[in-house]
Amino acid sequence: MMVVRLICVLISVLGLASATVPLGGMLAPQDNEVRQTKLLSGYWTFKPDPQCVGMSQKWFSAPLPAPTMVMPVPASYNDITEDPTLRDIIGWVWYEKVFYVPKSWAGERIVLRFESVHYYAAVYLDGVAVVDHYGGHLPFEADLTSLGKYGQGIRLTVAVNNTLSPVTLPPGEVQITGSGDPMHPKGYTVQNTYFDFFNYAGIHRDVLLYTTPLARIDDITVTYSITSGGDGVVHYNISVLPKCPPTSTIMLLDSNGRPSGNGTFSCQGSNIVGQILVEAKLVKLWSPASPYLYTLQIQTDVDVYRLASIGIRTIKVTSNQFLINNQPFYFHGVDKHEDSDIRGKGLDRPLVVKDFELLKWM
User: Fold this and answer.
1) Sign of the CA dihedral running 174, 115, 143, 42
2) How far apart are CA 67 and CA 94, in angstroms?
3) Are 86 and 77 in contact (CB under 8 A)?
4) CB of 237 within 8 A of CB of 244?
């Protein structure tokens, strides 16, 4: 596949923003007794930059210059309008939104999170670079705790570039082929791609603010084992900052919220390390045919986190078999691109649920 346009190539922008990516873990945000979230998705101000002047003119330092348009987030920008130049643009586009940090959040750790932006993103708050990120398939964050702006408007600007290279995922290649004639002016560029789907781009997942306590559950690592007697064991290693708390309660809850199993844990440095054993006669193992999930509930003196995706199982690969819980598993299914009408690769929750229903129906 080949797309030919006058494009501004992603060359000098890598590392443009001074990254303030939080060190340590990056647990999914959640609302509970002590943590809060605020969704920033919705309608954003949007401006394409086909001439690649936004960086040199510092569009991030003030509200985006007119003309602008409304762009829904999350969504790919390519199919929102009837303009073929926006559909096929390769290079920069700009997003902007004004948001407020509630005054009640003072004293909490505050994080700005992007669940997915394709492909390269540079993020600014009131003209100050706070984080950049390369790659559209993982979330990224910026810690805003030190910003100290509560109850006042903050201008969030995101510059997005969809240029592909041999080291991007998916890969591509940029070739500058302009010879100077009217049909191929200087700077005329070819974006070659080597895949069978359209290179949708934009802010593809939710954008949100969330809080945690300053002393917090920072990361959770979980593994599983099954004893020779059939007991299911959940092994966990919980990173807590800045240090292991004086009091903690770790529980495994079944699908009805009732405690399951018995376990022990200890503090090892700033980590809580332990395990919970569910007896063979009571344990419900996870499998694709019966995907039973427990919840690991972690409570410290100031923080709470519930990891609701605990599927007790073992995975083994032999020379000729894939085993789940020591039983052979045969894979079957379909290959599907993450595309849909109008929104492109943008998160479509009804479509996600529909796809899973179709998989079960098959």
Assistant:
1) positive
2) 12
3) yes
4) no
For residue 196, the Cα-to-chain-centroid distance in whole angstroms is 24
245 close to 262: Cβ distance less than 8 angstroms:
no
Q: Dig out the tokens for 284 from the structure.
A: 């419900």
pLDDT of residue 14: 39
Please tell me the predicted confidence (pLDDT) of residue 262: 95
User: Which string of DSSP letters, residue by residue, matches 58-102?
Assistant: TGGGSSPPSS-EEEEESS-STTTSS-HHHHH--SEEEEEEEEE--
The answer to whether residues 216 and 272 touch, using CB atoms and an 8 Å cutoff, is: no
End-to-end CA distance of the chain: 32
| Residue 18: partners with Cβ closer than 8 Å, 6 or more residues away | 129, 130
On whether the CB atoms of residues 94 and 47 are closer than 8 A, the answer is yes
CA dihedral over 63, 68, 70, 74, signed as positive or negative: negative
Coil, helix or strand for 142?
strand
| H helix runs in the chain, sequence order | 84-88, 349-361
At position 234, the amino acid (one-letter code) is V
Q: Return d(Cα 194, Cα 185) in angstroms, integer.
A: 25
Peptide bond into 119 cis (omega under 30): yes
What is the Cα Rg of the chain in Å? Answer: 24
For the record, the structure tokens of 360 come out as 């079960």
pTM of the model: 0.91
Among 239, 226, 322, residue whose Cα is nearest residue 277: 226
pLDDT of residue 176: 76
Q: What span, in angstroms and rounded, lies between the C-alpha atoms of 132 and 160? A: 10
Question: Phi, psi (5° rounding) for residue 77?
Answer: -85, -15
Walk along the chain (362 residues) in steps of 10 and give the mean pLDDT of each run.
47 43 80 98 97 96 98 97 92 97 96 97 97 94 93 96 91 78 71 87 98 97 97 98 93 97 95 97 95 97 97 96 95 82 94 88 80
Question: Which pair of structure tokens corresponds to residue 211?
Answer: 């809080």
